[in-house]
Amino acid sequence: MRLIPARTYHAEGGTRLVQRNPLLQSAFTRPLTATQISGFNILSQGGAWTSIRTKYKMKTHSGTKKRFRLNAKGQFRATHAARAHFNRKVRSIRARATRKPLVLAKAYHNHMKKLMPYAS
Fold first, then answer.
1. Residue ranges, the chain, pLDDT below 70
2. Which domain holds residue 87?
């Protein structure tokens, strides 16, 4: 017997309809009722229809998560620029000033929340 791979159909509301081979039914999926299938206007062609609820996740910007942290007050902080190397010629006043973390202005807060949606 030839096994047919699962085909995926996307429907409204973040629901994925998957047509699976009845012999390969997973324990994590459940068959759809007739009203659910008719609501999506999809006809079954010999296989069993299953419904899988999906959650849309936003991705955190990888460069942002390496450079910024959210402190307890809800402010984003970062390290100052020019701290890594070539610091022998930097004056001591400037070197001391860059030791403290840099706190971003409130104007950047909405933009940073889009880049780091799960920072709490």
1. 1-53
2. 62-115
